[in-house]
Amino acid sequence: MLVMVACWAMNADKRQEIFERLRAENPNPVTELNYSSPFELLIAVLLSAQATDVSVNLATAKLFPKANTPQAILDLGEASVRDAIRTIGLFNTKAKNVIKTCQILVDEHGGEVPDSRKALEALPGVGRKTANVVLNTAFRQIAMAVDTHIFRVSNRTKIAVGKDVVEVEKKLLRHVPKEFLLDAHHWLILHGRYTCVARKPKCGSCLIEDLCDFKEKTDVI
Questions:
Q1: How open is the CA angle 182-185-186, to the nearest 5 degrees?
Q2: Cβ atoms < 10 Å from Cβ of 199
Q3: How far apart are CA 72 and CA 66, in angstroms?
């Protein structure tokens, strides 16, 4: 993902106020993916590539009651996993990755989800963003999973300006005030999903409109 962006960014006082407001509105932000264990979260995030959280939740609602541990999914088999998740995009490839990931978890990690980036990124279908989500959400480590929503919000508001997701991730980790770092991922993604949307941002109902440096504000509510 590459875009041309301006080189400036907002000042620290604005960032502080932005996150104070986001926290006040939603003190305990959580992912919209349904899960009850680090393993369920890992599988849900793995399935979420090019799919909505709603569609993933529908798929995992079929899969997890049948099998929600690595060994149980291996026992279930690839064909049954594929059948459970066939309503989401790339389900064939994802089913294969789920099985391969479960095999590695059983063989190398005692059936547990590892809590290190290196081990997570070694799993089939798990990239930097997926690893960051698991580290942050399941293990409550400071990590910034920059998806299309966070990339857009960070650049549009000037909270963290970057030409690609890795640059934005690094700048967010550097510039977001420390007291907000643990939950910043959730606040930003929810803001991008429901308010600072791609085509017509709802600036008229945005609680940080006066702090945002986006020059093409709309009055959409």
A1: 100
A2: 6
A3: 8
Domain boundaries, the chain: 12-29+143-205, 38-138
Distance CA 125, CA 102 (A): 11
User: Is 16 exposed, middle or buried (CB count within 10 Å of its CB: 0-12, 13-18, 19+)?
Assistant: middle
DSSP for 151-204, written as a single string: HHHHHHHTSS--SSHHHHHHHHHHHS-GGGHHHHHHHHHHHHHHTS-SSS--GG
Catalytic center residues:
129, 147
Give Cα 188 distance to the centre of its chain: 10
* CA–centroid distance for 154 within its chain: 14
CATH 2.60.40.2100 describes domain 12-29+143-205: no
**Cα dihedral sign, 12-16-22-23:** positive
Predicted confidence (pLDDT) per residue in 177-212, tens digit: 999 999 999 999 999 999 999 999 999 999 999 999
The rounded distance, in Å, linking the Cα atoms of 25 and 35 is 24
Closest CA to 126 of 191, 182, 46, 186: 46
| Candidate CATH numbers 3.30.230.10, 1.10.340.30, 3.40.630.10, 3.90.1210.10; the one for domain 38-138 | 1.10.340.30
Query: What's the rounded Cα separation, in Å, for the pair 45 and 97?
Result: 12
Please give the backbone phi and psi of residue 24, each rounded to the nearest 5 degrees, phi first.
Answer: -65, -35
Question: pTM for this structure?
Answer: 0.89
> At 213, is the secondary structure helix, strand, or coil?
coil
